[in-house]
Queue: 4 jobs
Job 1
Amino acid sequence: MDVKMPVPVMEPVRVEVPRPRSGWSVEVKWDGVRLLAHRDGGEIRFYGRSGREYTPGLGDLAARVLAAVGPREAVLDGELVAWAHEGPSFPDAVRALRGGRGQRITYEVFDLIGEDGSDLRALPWEARRRRIESCLDPGPVVHPTRVFPGEQAIEVYRAVEKLQLEGVVMKDRDSPYVGGKSRYWEKAKHDAEGVFRVGSWRRTPGGATLHLLDAGGRPVGAVSSGVDADHITRLRALTGGQGGALPPGVEARVRFHGRTAAGRLRHPRLMGLLPQ
């Protein structure tokens, strides 16, 4: 296949509110993990946003993708979503990515960037979307994500908010697939969210507190909401105790409601520790 893996993924730019437009589409932004699936020969290999391979822990999903794609060679782009009782769960999606069991997962396919030896990235989004429909035999686990007309962007955004989902992604129907952030794709989310370095942590009664730093190493606050037993187990393995400084590279995905005048996160909630 002409598409060399791993592929630099295309990413949307952030906007505050979606803008209704003809010639665009709208998709739900699930609270999951970006995942590329590459079928070459009789194997499926999975890659994350960074290019890291996650094939060993996703054997069950690989069988589902093989069944959905059939004999075609293909490179799919989509989102691995783990479903908890209340809806999509990012921590559960990370656990599934790392080989955890017991989560109900789906693979929401939103792009097809290679098929049967052809690199499709130069094609417009609309053409790639049509090829998804013909390429996939959808099932309850692997299927194309639903698409809405761009003129309905506000209605979809409000409906997603009522369902307490993450947000929406708007895509220019004429857009090629380009690596990195692109104005061809936009995302609007209901809460601010970011990835921060975890500088240190400490055990607290019933939980733990993580001290967060921005990209420049400046403190932006601490988070204890959302910290669970799995997070604590990972942190203890890194420090060998009930707290302490963490090595560089430990990062957390945090959702929050804006910042204070001093730049601290307001009402932060840990969504998950990123895979290392």
Note: The first strand starts at residue 10 and ends at 14.
Job 2
Amino acid sequence: MGNKPMPVFISYASYDNTSDDPEKRWLDRLLQFLKPMELDSRITSWSDTDLTPGSQWKQEIQDAIGRAKVAILLVSPAFLASKFIRTEELPRLLSNSNSDYSSLSGDEEQEGMLILPILIRPCLIDKIEIEVHDGPSEVRHTTLSEFQYVPKGSAMNGLSEYQQDKELEYISRKILDALDLVSTPNIESVDDPDSILLGNQLVSFLSTYNSWWFNALRIRNWGSKQRNFKLFRDFTVTQIEAKLKALNKDDMIDSKDGKRSRVYKAY
């Protein structure tokens, strides 16, 4: 692969990785799911277990945060009780954050960090506010519940082992979606044959399923599984989004703001 591996930062409380039961060592379990992507040189993961002995550890953590495109947060009572996480890691992570993929393809290393919280054990994820400095005089307070976290309506320790693995698999797939955005350039020319083909397929797809609104991610993930639309697999979410915007600008399809992203529909 010609692209650089995408840096992933993992924030967790050491308490949540010290159990005698390997199924309750959450960092270790997460790393099992990330390791195949690392072996394929698609990502590099970093946690404080990667600190260099004798190094200036605080600076090393800050440097790792600065490089990261994705941050995975293993949220628990111990996580929220950690002063270092609350005052050092989270403010830096959240100041560079996005709740979706909108800026992941930016040129700056810190732009568009995707935040992926995993609720390990029930805690005050919706009540504890994190102070984030967006500039010299810009301060805001946010909770981690403002980001889409998993599992929905529960915590990992309330699920079966199989369900826990499915949630970790989901996080891995979210990382692959993010990787998809930063690794492939947009279609720039509207006259490019691939661009024309994609546009025709999008119009046909939205006309076929004209009862629903779709965002680019759903078109690629779900649409590519539908008969006659497998071609979507050959394009990234960014490419599909760019073409949808162009079609909407040419008044060929309708659009509106969805809950998390722009959605599109045939007229």
Note: DSSP finds eight helices and nine strands in the chain.
Job 3
Amino acid sequence: MLGIRVEVAYSLSLDPKRPVVFLGNHPRLFEIPAYAKAVLAIIRRRNIVPIVKSELQRTPFGLAAVFLGALPIKREKGVHAVATIHRWAKKQTGFPAIVLYPDGTRATRKKQQRVKEILLEKYNDPKKQAIISRICSVTIPPKVAGLHALLMGLENPQCVLVRVKNNRGVTSLFDLWKNGPPTCVSVVVEGIQITSEDSQVLQDELFNLWDKKVVSFLR
């Protein structure tokens, strides 16, 4: 694929009569084809709905995604965006496959540092601060609001964690210039259990999930 080898590993069993939510770290632009290939390979007779930021509608990629059924949201209007996701989820009668990136954006070192400073100021618990620091050393921590809105709106959803990385650790154009283009993109697709209905407990569950699964994978 574009001269880049794609390695995919699966560990899941999907129920065809339940909606499915794919979540994970945000892929970089050149990782998206590998991510899509991995997800589409296990989606049969389902409508796939990526949740995308509305700004993408100003790009050919975003317009194509919306045309194919993506749900655009305005991230800057947090409460409105969450309500939009929840209303959409409540209306679903089939078994859609929804793609959501809880971190909300592609990770860069500058973004990671900025988010780390904000979250360390927000949370006083030393254990949680340590988890946030570990996550921010490699990526951006997940936010709970969008996922919580989906899980509360969908009927009996199942969740899948999708982790993606490239073998050169390229996260920016500078990395691309410094390290050269990646030669391999790895994707791991794994079924997970998310049990909490309380948003704060779910946030802690996501932090722990990223700490245990995503951080070790990206390092």
Note: The chain has one domain: 5-218.
Job 4
Amino acid sequence: MIAAHLPALQVVIPLMAAPLCVLLRRPVLAWALTLAVSWVVLAIAVALLLQVLESGPVTYPLGNWAAPWGIEYRVDLAGAFVLVIVAAIGAVVTPYARRSVEHEIPRDRIYLFYAMYLLCLTGLLGIAITGDAFNLFVFLEITSLSSYVLISLGSERRALTAAYRYLIMGTLGATFYLIGVAMMYMMTGTLNMADLATLMPAVADTRTILVALAFLTVGISLKLALFPLHLWLPNAYTYAPSVVTAFLAATAAFVLRTGQLSSVIKSSSASTGVVYRSLGFLRVYL
């Protein structure tokens, strides 16, 4: 039944459509495919939201491997709203992207823009839906790598410099995040976020976990461009194509606010509050 596989389709459809844009090559066809996929993804997100509202959180074990041994997609109420809003932003931006892209990007590179746009959308949706900390890293890098290319497609040469600066800072952020996740795995033996939320309070005061959270905080802050680690952001938004700036700025700002709200709700004590605050960022960011 298709409804049972909606969590996987939410990610698989834009992921498979990206290389199709490269094969099509013609700008009009690539745009039409991107437009159709973005609205299909929005429809799936709305269906998942309705399903969560009706029957509670939705879990989807990839390959039928149960968590925590396998990778689990988990859609709770907060995640469902994130999916809908990110998908809605992508669906609204895409119809207006055609004219903007034609004016700002050389014609022979337009199909590459749509391929990267779909990959970026894939990463954002995957970040919101995954329940595995390492799988989140994978989606984080899909989003970041495609964003580097999208920013570099700007009409000015300074877009290349902005993209390169973002690449360096993003790579540092990803490295810090990965080190933090590895240290949490060393202490808990799991990468499943639900298990981490259960097991980490028992070891929250250990030096290893505190160092891991420090790595996570710095790494995610670099990715989020949180002050004072935001130096790559102004030039990236200034010199990127207009549609890229509109898409990334809208999704990043929303996810940041959601992460802050999640940290306030989940922080119940001084010791576990730091843990849950980091898990809140892990659950909802770009």
Note: Residues 259-286 have pLDDT under 50 and may be disordered.
